[in-house]
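To: structure subgroup
Subject: Chain for Friday's discussion

All,

I'm putting the inputs and outputs inline so they're searchable in the archive.
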Amino acid sequence: MLWSAGYFVAFWSATGQTPGGRVMHIRVVDPDGGHLSPARAARRMVAMVLGAIPCFLGYVGIVTDERCRAFHDRVARTVVVYSRPVPRPPGGGGPA
């Protein structure tokens, strides 16, 4: 459990996205668009667990809130935004 929590906190505070978030082109940021501090990322992680305990009721806000914010986003004052994929150069840009 500690490794899992550390995984999310480390990625959210370093880049704003986990490898899965990178694939989905989503990023977790503060309301001003900046990176999360490790403390804010940890608060979000704890709130995610607490929101899941009562039959995942903490996640209802994703479909009912106009900004699609769940309980953990409100507690940690975070926003999930779409990030643009990095454009590739013409011709694939891969190694020769």
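Points worth raising on Friday:
The radius of gyration is 15 Å.
The first helix runs from residue 2 to 14.

D.
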